[in-house]
């Protein structure tokens, strides 16, 4: 693997761990505010980000590349005003992750690293799903925002999300 893409992939692994950390912070905040469904939903998001990092690591190892684990930045925001703000920030975060994955894909293409392009295609598709699920939750939150009972019902529904280990 070329050094340039190896380093960029390492930065992506770090970004996945930072995503995980962000969603864990959100899960904890939601729990303290009594939104137990949203907390569970974010907890699964945390697990999925760890899967993303693991999938990248596995690929790097199979290519004989070096994996460097960097320090993870502290999540500066500890509290979100409401579920809407939390999901809005999550969507923005996922859009940044998508940009980063697209940048990696561009680099892999420039380097004619077709194996990395193939692995990254999974992440390109995964980001479509990630942004879609954040947009879906955001849309639903806008719909139920005027009605406390509906909001409670929706929180319960979010809590039913099940974790399925991601594999590529
Ligand atoms: Fe991710």
Order of helices and strands: HHHHH
In terms of DSSP E residues, the strand content is under 5%
Determine the number of helices (DSSP H or I, runs of at least 4 residues).
Answer: 5
CATH superfamily: Ferritin, core subunit, four-helix bundle
Which small-molecule ligands are present, each listed once? fe (ii) ion
* SS class: mainly alpha
Radius of gyration: 17 Å
**What share of the residues lie within helices?**
over 70%
Cα(first) to Cα(last) distance is: 20 Å
Regions with little confidence, pLDDT below 50 for 5+ residues = none
Mean pLDDT, nearest integer? 97
How would you briefly describe this protein structure?
With 168 residues, the protein is mainly α. The chain has helices at 3-32, 36-62, 83-110, 114-144, 148-158.
What would you say this structure looks like, in words?
With 168 residues, this protein is mainly alpha-helical. It has one domain (3-158): Ferritin, core subunit, four-helix bundle (Ferritin, Up-down Bundle). It contains 5 helices and no strands. α1 runs antiparallel to α2 (36-62), α2 packs parallel to α5 and α3 runs antiparallel to α4 (114-144). It starts with a helix and ends in a 10-residue tail after the last helix. The model has no long low-confidence stretch (mean pLDDT 97). Fe (ii) ion binds at residues 16, 19, 49, 52, 97.
Provide keyphrases for this structure:
Ferritin; 168 residues; elongated; mainly alpha; binds fe (ii) ion
Give a topology summary.
Elements: H1 3-32, H2 36-62, H3 83-110, H4 114-144, H5 148-158
The structure holds fe (ii) ion.
Fe (ii) ion (FE2) binds near residues 16, 52 and 97.
